[in-house]
Amino acid sequence: MTPSFDAEQFWVEQAWTVQDRFLEMHSHWLTVIGEHLQDHRGNVLEYWRIEKADSVIVLPIQNEQILFPSPSYRPGVGSVTLDLPGGRVPVGTSPEQAAIAILQRELGIDAASIDRLIALNSIGWAVNSSFSNQKLYGFVAHLHSATEPAKELISAAYSITPSGIHQLLSVINCLQCRTVLLEWIFRLSYLRL
Protein backbone atom coordinates (compact mmCIF):
# COMPACT_ATOMS: atom_id res chain seq x y z
CA MET A 1 0.00 0.00 0.00
CA THR A 2 1.32 3.46 -0.95
CA PRO A 3 1.63 5.78 2.06
CA SER A 4 -0.53 8.89 1.86
CA PHE A 5 0.92 12.39 1.92
CA ASP A 6 -0.32 14.63 4.73
CA ALA A 7 0.12 18.08 3.18
CA GLU A 8 -1.10 19.92 6.27
CA GLN A 9 1.35 18.16 8.61
CA PHE A 10 4.18 18.63 6.10
CA TRP A 11 3.41 22.35 5.88
CA VAL A 12 3.49 22.71 9.68
CA GLU A 13 6.85 20.89 9.83
CA GLN A 14 8.33 22.91 6.93
CA ALA A 15 6.89 26.34 7.76
CA TRP A 16 9.22 29.34 7.58
CA THR A 17 8.77 32.51 9.60
CA VAL A 18 9.36 36.10 8.56
CA GLN A 19 12.04 37.66 10.75
CA ASP A 20 11.77 41.14 9.25
CA ARG A 21 10.76 42.97 6.10
CA PHE A 22 13.56 45.32 5.16
CA LEU A 23 12.03 46.65 1.93
CA GLU A 24 8.54 47.11 0.49
CA MET A 25 8.28 49.21 -2.66
CA HIS A 26 4.95 49.73 -4.43
CA SER A 27 4.22 50.75 -8.01
CA HIS A 28 1.14 50.56 -10.21
CA TRP A 29 2.39 47.28 -11.70
CA LEU A 30 3.94 45.44 -8.77
CA THR A 31 5.25 45.39 -5.22
CA VAL A 32 8.89 44.49 -4.52
CA ILE A 33 9.48 42.91 -1.10
CA GLY A 34 12.74 42.06 0.65
CA GLU A 35 12.56 39.88 3.77
CA HIS A 36 14.67 37.79 6.08
CA LEU A 37 13.05 34.39 6.59
CA GLN A 38 13.95 31.67 9.06
CA ASP A 39 13.59 28.23 7.52
CA HIS A 40 12.44 25.06 9.29
CA ARG A 41 16.08 24.28 10.21
CA GLY A 42 16.69 27.64 11.91
CA ASN A 43 18.70 29.24 9.08
CA VAL A 44 18.00 32.93 8.39
CA LEU A 45 17.88 33.61 4.65
CA GLU A 46 17.42 36.79 2.60
CA TYR A 47 14.57 36.56 0.08
CA TRP A 48 13.35 39.01 -2.52
CA ARG A 49 10.00 38.67 -4.23
CA ILE A 50 7.56 40.47 -6.43
CA GLU A 51 3.82 40.46 -5.95
CA LYS A 52 1.58 41.28 -8.90
CA ALA A 53 -2.14 41.41 -9.46
CA ASP A 54 -3.57 38.09 -10.60
CA SER A 55 -3.75 37.35 -14.32
CA VAL A 56 -6.51 36.19 -16.64
CA ILE A 57 -5.96 34.41 -19.95
CA VAL A 58 -8.96 33.82 -22.23
CA LEU A 59 -9.18 31.23 -25.00
CA PRO A 60 -11.78 32.73 -27.41
CA ILE A 61 -13.42 30.22 -29.75
CA GLN A 62 -15.71 31.11 -32.61
CA ASN A 63 -16.85 28.80 -35.41
CA GLU A 64 -14.25 26.14 -34.54
CA GLN A 65 -11.41 28.74 -34.56
CA ILE A 66 -9.26 30.10 -31.72
CA LEU A 67 -8.94 33.87 -32.20
CA PHE A 68 -5.81 35.88 -31.42
CA PRO A 69 -5.30 39.62 -30.98
CA SER A 70 -2.37 41.42 -32.56
CA PRO A 71 1.02 40.16 -31.36
CA SER A 72 2.62 42.28 -28.67
CA TYR A 73 6.20 43.22 -27.91
CA ARG A 74 7.62 41.58 -24.79
CA PRO A 75 10.45 43.71 -23.36
CA GLY A 76 11.79 40.86 -21.19
CA VAL A 77 11.95 38.50 -24.16
CA GLY A 78 12.99 41.18 -26.63
CA SER A 79 10.58 40.09 -29.34
CA VAL A 80 6.99 40.17 -30.53
CA THR A 81 4.92 37.17 -29.42
CA LEU A 82 1.54 35.73 -30.33
CA ASP A 83 -0.51 35.47 -27.14
CA LEU A 84 -4.07 34.68 -26.16
CA PRO A 85 -6.04 37.67 -24.86
CA GLY A 86 -4.95 38.35 -21.30
CA GLY A 87 -4.34 40.87 -18.60
CA ARG A 88 -4.49 41.62 -14.90
CA VAL A 89 -7.44 41.42 -12.52
CA PRO A 90 -8.00 44.97 -11.22
CA VAL A 91 -8.70 45.44 -7.51
CA GLY A 92 -12.42 44.99 -6.82
CA THR A 93 -12.99 43.03 -10.04
CA SER A 94 -13.73 39.31 -10.32
CA PRO A 95 -11.70 37.16 -12.74
CA GLU A 96 -14.89 36.70 -14.82
CA GLN A 97 -15.39 40.45 -15.11
CA ALA A 98 -11.73 40.86 -16.05
CA ALA A 99 -12.09 38.16 -18.75
CA ILE A 100 -15.02 40.01 -20.34
CA ALA A 101 -13.17 43.35 -20.21
CA ILE A 102 -10.08 41.72 -21.79
CA LEU A 103 -12.14 40.36 -24.70
CA GLN A 104 -13.62 43.82 -25.25
CA ARG A 105 -10.23 45.55 -25.12
CA GLU A 106 -8.22 43.07 -27.19
CA LEU A 107 -10.76 41.72 -29.70
CA GLY A 108 -13.63 44.21 -29.63
CA ILE A 109 -16.02 41.54 -28.29
CA ASP A 110 -18.71 42.65 -25.86
CA ALA A 111 -20.42 40.54 -23.18
CA ALA A 112 -23.54 39.99 -25.36
CA SER A 113 -21.34 38.25 -27.97
CA ILE A 114 -20.25 35.57 -25.49
CA ASP A 115 -22.39 32.46 -25.63
CA ARG A 116 -20.59 30.71 -22.75
CA LEU A 117 -17.70 31.77 -20.51
CA ILE A 118 -16.22 28.69 -18.85
CA ALA A 119 -13.73 28.96 -15.99
CA LEU A 120 -10.93 26.40 -16.26
CA ASN A 121 -10.09 26.93 -12.60
CA SER A 122 -11.93 28.56 -9.74
CA ILE A 123 -9.16 29.41 -7.26
CA GLY A 124 -6.38 30.37 -9.68
CA TRP A 125 -3.20 28.48 -10.47
CA ALA A 126 -0.18 29.64 -8.51
CA VAL A 127 2.34 31.34 -10.79
CA ASN A 128 4.88 31.28 -8.06
CA SER A 129 8.59 31.03 -7.54
CA SER A 130 10.81 32.37 -4.81
CA PHE A 131 10.80 35.67 -6.71
CA SER A 132 7.31 36.09 -8.17
CA ASN A 133 3.85 35.59 -6.76
CA GLN A 134 0.45 35.77 -8.47
CA LYS A 135 -2.44 33.55 -9.57
CA LEU A 136 -3.55 32.73 -13.10
CA TYR A 137 -7.22 32.30 -14.00
CA GLY A 138 -8.03 30.57 -17.29
CA PHE A 139 -11.26 30.91 -19.25
CA VAL A 140 -12.71 29.59 -22.47
CA ALA A 141 -15.09 32.02 -24.19
CA HIS A 142 -17.39 30.43 -26.75
CA LEU A 143 -18.58 33.27 -28.96
CA HIS A 144 -21.88 33.36 -30.82
CA SER A 145 -21.30 32.24 -34.40
CA ALA A 146 -22.81 35.46 -35.79
CA THR A 147 -20.58 37.70 -33.63
CA GLU A 148 -18.33 39.96 -35.66
CA PRO A 149 -15.14 40.71 -33.77
CA ALA A 150 -13.29 43.85 -34.81
CA LYS A 151 -11.41 42.54 -37.86
CA GLU A 152 -8.59 45.03 -37.37
CA LEU A 153 -7.95 43.52 -33.91
CA ILE A 154 -7.79 39.86 -35.04
CA SER A 155 -4.30 38.85 -36.15
CA ALA A 156 -4.68 35.07 -36.37
CA ALA A 157 -7.18 32.24 -36.11
CA TYR A 158 -6.26 28.60 -35.58
CA SER A 159 -8.57 25.67 -36.22
CA ILE A 160 -9.45 23.52 -33.22
CA THR A 161 -8.63 20.42 -35.26
CA PRO A 162 -5.63 18.31 -34.18
CA SER A 163 -3.49 19.76 -36.99
CA GLY A 164 -4.53 23.34 -36.10
CA ILE A 165 -3.73 22.78 -32.41
CA HIS A 166 -0.39 21.19 -33.33
CA GLN A 167 0.46 24.21 -35.50
CA LEU A 168 -0.61 26.58 -32.72
CA LEU A 169 1.56 24.80 -30.15
CA SER A 170 4.55 25.24 -32.45
CA VAL A 171 4.18 29.05 -32.47
CA ILE A 172 2.76 29.99 -29.07
CA ASN A 173 5.58 30.72 -26.63
CA CYS A 174 3.89 32.27 -23.59
CA LEU A 175 3.88 29.71 -20.76
CA GLN A 176 0.65 31.04 -19.24
CA CYS A 177 -1.08 30.92 -22.65
CA ARG A 178 0.18 27.37 -23.19
CA THR A 179 -1.11 26.37 -19.74
CA VAL A 180 -4.63 27.58 -20.54
CA LEU A 181 -4.54 25.97 -24.00
CA LEU A 182 -3.24 22.64 -22.67
CA GLU A 183 -5.77 22.59 -19.82
CA TRP A 184 -8.55 23.10 -22.37
CA ILE A 185 -7.12 20.32 -24.58
CA PHE A 186 -6.86 18.02 -21.55
CA ARG A 187 -10.49 18.65 -20.63
CA LEU A 188 -11.64 18.04 -24.20
CA SER A 189 -9.65 14.83 -24.43
CA TYR A 190 -10.26 13.31 -21.03
CA LEU A 191 -13.06 15.02 -19.20
CA ARG A 192 -15.36 15.73 -22.16
CA LEU A 193 -16.34 19.14 -20.78
Here the CATH topology of the largest domain equals Nucleoside Triphosphate Pyrophosphohydrolase
Q: Let me know the CATH homologous superfamily of the largest domain.
A: Nucleoside Triphosphate Pyrophosphohydrolase
Question: What is the molecular shape?
Answer: globular
Give the radius of gyration.
20 Å
Level of helix content? 10-25%
Give the tally of structural domains.
2
CATH architecture of the largest domain: Alpha-Beta Complex
- Number of DSSP strand runs: 12
Give the DSSP E fraction (strand runs of 2 or more residues): 35-45%
Helical element count?
4
> In terms of per-residue confidence, which ranges show pLDDT below 50 for 5 or more consecutive residues?
none
Helices and strands, in order, run as HEEEEEEEEHEEEEHH
Protein name: NUDIX domain-containing protein
InterPro entries: NUDIX_hydrolase-like_dom_sf (IPR015797)
Briefly say what this structure is.
The protein has 193 residues and is of the alpha+beta class.
Write up what this structure looks like.
It is built from four helices and twelve strands, in the order H-E-E-E-E-E-E-E-E-H-E-E-E-E-H-H. It has 193 residues and is an alpha+beta fold. The chain folds into two domains: 7-52, no CATH class; 55-191, Alpha-Beta Complex (Nucleoside Triphosphate Pyrophosphohydrolase), CATH 3.90.79. The strands form two sheets. Strands 1, 2, 3, 4, 5, 8, 9, 10, 11 and 12 form a ten-stranded mixed sheet that branches. Strand 6 (72-74) and strand 7 (79-81) form a beta hairpin. The two termini are 33 Å apart. This is NUDIX domain-containing protein.
